[in-house]
Design goal:
Six copies of one chain form a homohexamer. With 279 residues, chain A is of the alpha/beta class. Chain A has helices at residues 5-20, 25-30, 52-62, 91-120, 141-150, 168-174, 177-187, 201-209, 225-232, 249-254, 264-267, and strands spanning 36-43, 47-48, 67-70, 77-78, 83-90, 129-131, 164-166, 194-198, 214-218, 237-241, 259-261, 274-278. In chain A, strand 8, helix 8 and strand 9 (214-218) form a beta-alpha-beta unit. Chains in contact: A-B, A-C, A-D, A-E, B-C, B-E, B-F, C-D, C-F, D-E, D-F, E-F.
Chain lengths: 279, 279, 279, 279, 279, 279
């Protein structure tokens, strides 16, 4: 469930370069090189934590002498005041990395916490999935997808090559859902699924006819969902997308939808409040 | 007021690699290479736009044949329904770059719009500045600082090398505000200002005595501000920081504070709603 | 059907760095900077050409003044002696790039030519696909996949994230095909297909029961195929893999197999003979 | 005799990025993180092995806990069924790196095995060298040169800066072998040798007159070689190039040629058959 | 006082790539892999040493088995014949890294030694600083700034973003020192100082009036300095720049100037003589 | 005679990143974006100019609208006050690139000017070469080698792979000049020359016997040179190295030495004085 190691290495290197690449003049002046210290990363509000692996990578790159001691696994609830992890090592290095580490952890924990709220809104017993979208922060997609998983969500396709997704523009350019589907199947690997976004019952019927593996109901009204589910009749997975609010989750799940994709998980989660308590 | 060109190039390259680095199988299958098209980037809510330069860079890297025609400058208000820019070029390339371009523009316009709200909350006639902090998205600092400027805000120090900022840990490690200041001045370039974070009137007095160029009042209560301003008496710039809400801005500005730094501008602005209208 | 632009740029840059990164002392000494020339990339044997896009990128990076004039599209048959493209420009730049361009074109045309032989071995009217595998040259996967497409083949999954492929080790570690499938479905995106490699009829039955989207018959004997196809009965795509020779292609296709994956296309195609004829 | 460390690091990083950069969804789902395993890299045919250093680098980058235990040195013959090395470590990491490691080892061992066949074709007692050319796989030159050395061969010049090599185009552009030589000597470092490709006895005489350090006989007929050797009379090294088959090696060596360069070693060696046996 | 770790890593990697990226054919041929050795980096003239951190990084990247034993700290005087550090490890690795390590150390020690001469020329009791400028070697700025600090000097602004420095062109383009100052203050962060270069007493008066934090007297004659100091009267720091020779240092310092910036420290220091003594 | 394009691109990118990567706050504040300007790069002392190609690359990367108009070719003498080139374009971009461009040009012109002095010290009619060494600035080797050529000098081997150079340590580790030579020949490409450093007539004799292509007389006294030349008798090129001063050049050349290598050309040339005159 972890972040791919090679990506993590690159993203953290960029972040450190950005903040401490040219040095930390205050710390080097005021803090003796020999001073060691400990500090706790603590929740200042209730939240789902996501940041242990990232913290470990931040300090591994800055100073191998820093030891990162986790108290919870990524994905766990943290009560207000509780500590996610404790850092031990040269005080200079802890200060060099503090902001970068918190910038990652606050943002990713914010995503995990918001995702958890959506997942917890699913009625007991449904098999509906909450997923992210491609509306992620440029450069941080792999990390944000990981945060969504930490919150109990699932991921959507990773990029434009990961599956076929036929949207209105593709339909228009190909002359209809059926020719678009046929062209896509002919070009895509046999290992790729074909998704088709539809905005009406007629389009839905055509997509099913064309053999879509997944149909995406775009901005369907609540009362259209049962008819859509009935029409599909198990021939494809059904996904609902388009500005889905937390309040609508139980209704959509109960209608028998397989997947609800929520762009806000990654584009609009606020950072949660984490701080560093020195000891 | 632009983003440094070299940074822009690198950040956009990473984002494109992430989303279209391995190709866009749907578009290549369904859309003919010879098809050209136009599309408008339009506001789906009222917002301050920030994204013209980024859009230009996204498409310059993807396909030099795409022409980006701006209708407003970055930093302008856009009414709901209005277009920020129009793209002209091969339909395939517009589709390849659509998501990456919108991911940037929605996020940065979100920051610009939130910043504008804080700036507009300043009473007429005050010279108080609203600034960002170092609580930016890892990898996107230069772009987010630009978005803050587009919203009428100002920037704080760019990184740990850009100025001296003495915090409680530095004070503790140096044996007090005065020795911390002296050590920092001795080490820092003469071109660097010295900022000192204080959490009490006593510390404020000591920081002024030590010759701080800027004093940062951390989590001071509203009714402490007048006394603090009086004590400083023009000897240093005064900055207020620490979870400042929009409601408190007029009061703080009227108290005579020079700078209000707001972390939420970059760590918790929600993405605003922008879409691509095909023509 | 092209190579992703960003990948092409990086791969060509590495190749040029390797061969001409430190200069071309002979050409700089012996050839005047002002001399211009033309040269034809010509086939010295019958082959399927793949190299026009790559040649264009090689010379775009070396010297924008070089003009690459294609005579055939990638994927076309070229008779012995025929020219694929003509280069026009400064003689120095043509000489600087000659070897790198030919190294790419000979290798990729070799893959395209071999793929074409496998595709042409399919009986008329079958819908069986010839595909590559992940046994590609390190660093050149995207280009080699493109070459396979130029030869009329299709691609398999791109990398370890592009689809679920359950092999014997995964089965052993999970306690069977069924639990492996369940764990994979739970973790993978709903947009991912699940492939299951099987080496017996019993395993095949279990994979179908577990809902595999694609079953891969690994080293099945020729006379086992009809029974396998009958057992599957359209519930999954059927792929045959494992050292498939050209001779066996018609038989396998006639048995009703959907996909034949051939590692040799990318790991053992010999370079075809292309040369540069100066004019 | 090893691969330069810095190059090895970069090439392996690219290969891992390509195959596992976005994760390995099957293994993460099906294999427990705590499971450890051992696996042998075994020859499925008789071959000269080349891959120990590469395997070590692959797993060092993926997971430092994997231990690579070599059973033979690079360059040794491996009988069918024998193991080249054993891997010990977390099963997940072994699965993540399996394909990349084999892709390198099969290709490089293929080159080493083919080179060994050419070297073993040299008559006992001759001092003739078998060398590679610059017809290497883009991006893998340093590794393929290493594989050639593992097979008992030698390397030719590394790139366009490594020595002067005057070909027909340089001769044409300079007005003859003599002026080309003079221009090259004047420009090249005194530490560079000058090679001159010749296609006739007349050109050979001129090259010797011009002081070439090495003369390259391009596509000379077998019966021309003795006269050429006699003409040179020890004044230069003599190299034979141009589609040299294995069968011609003994004859060429006996004629007294110093160097035979064989492009096929790197552009057309087939991958040999290596597999991973889990234990 | 150290070089930022991330920069050091990158600069050393480039230098090693440049010199040993393609291998060291002589050492690999002549020196057995098992041979270990020790060697002292020794001063062949009296100098201020700067190179311990760099040597450690060079060998850490080349071969972790090499141990770097420092005898003095960076910034210490080294008498002729004395050793700065001793290297222990595989003889091959010591030979691979010898030249790169010395190229760094000779150059940086040259800068440190020259800086020390300027600093030692300051009269006892003055608080004047000797600083570098932005006239550094492209790519090595962070290291050269460190060398200046090792020599007892201070640094000037790091780059074009680190502070505002108004020069004659900015004045001309803005319509005067006062408007240039106002525009700069409005745009720059409140954490940035404003420097103003002046070439006459009139400009100096205007700069002070405009509130410059630092005034830079460009090519002022010696006898103008007292009047300038008197005019400033503590309202700004005073810097003298422009081809300042060692001989003028005491006079300038005694005039009460705060900062003397010396471009020659980084653009024209000669390399000092360091060698490697094998043991 | 130019710098390899790919290297030039990378080196200039690093230099720009270092100085203007984060922006140029002063210029953006004070200079209108629409203002265009012209400026001459002028010599403030007599010098051999080297910087036209570099200036072109600096401004190509910063702003393609800047036009670089050269008045002399690299390598030409420039009298005090004369202009090497004129820049035309947006004033902002000229200011952004001014310092980086001058930092390159002053340093490289310094090398070219010093090299020219050594070359001009050669007596008329001798064929002795002045060359550089590997004692170059880390990261700038290709540019400094170019500057040496612009000054009329020649280059030595480029890096540790470019030729075999047997030094005392290699001799010691191999058991003598003869075995060192034999091992090196066996391992190195047949296209590599073998250089042997000798410090006595006895070693010189042994090196010749072993077939060295070039013998390097290390710190030989002036009166030893004629005997050395006599002993060599045309069997090898003779190089003199080791702290050679300008005064000794005529004598060494007259003794019949082929090559004089001078480390100071690249490690200790002072920057010459170039400035930008705005028009």
């Amino acid at each position: 469930m972890s972040v791919p190691k090679l990506t993590l290495t690159k993203v953290v290197a960029v972040a450190l370069e950005e903040d401490v690449g040219r040095g930390d003049v205050t710390t080097e002046a005021c803090v003796d090189a020999a001073l060691t210290s400990s500090a706790r990363v603590a929740a200042r509000e209730r939240l789902v934590f996501c940041g242990t692996e990232i913290a470990a990578e931040v300090f591994a790159q800055l100073d191998v002498r820093v030891r990162v001691e986790p108290h919870v696994a990524d994905g766990a609830w943290l009560e207000k005041g509780a500590a996610a992890l404790t850092l031990h090592g040269p005080a200079r290095s802890l200060l060099h990395g503090e902001r970068v580490m918190l910038n990652f952890a606050q943002r990713l924990s914010g995503i995990a916490t918001m995702t958890r709220a959506f997942v917890d809104a699913l009625p007991a017993g449904t098999r509906t999935r909450i997923t992210d979208t491609r509306k992620t922060t440029p450069g941080l997609r792999a990390l944000e997808r990981y945060a969504v998983r930490c919150g109990g969500g699932h991921n959507h396709r990773e990029d434009l090559a990961a599956a076929v997704l036929i949207k209105d523009n593709h339909v228009a350019a190909s002359g209809g859902v059926t020719p678009a589907s046929r062209r896509a199947r002919a070009r895509a690997a046999h290992t790729s699924k074909v998704l088709c976004e539809v905005d009406s019952m007629a389009q839905l019927a055509e997509a099913l006819e064309a053999g879509a593996d997944i149909v995406m109901l775009d901005n369907f009204a609540d009362d259209q969902l049962p008819a859509a589910v009935k029409l599909v009749a198990g021939r494809a997975l059904i996904e609902v997308s388009g500005r889905v609010s937390l309040e609508r989750i139980p209704m959509i799940a109960r209608a028998g939808i397989d997947v609800i994709s929520v762009g806000a998980l990654t584009h609009s989660a606020r950072a949660v409040d984490l701080g560093l308590d020195w000891q």
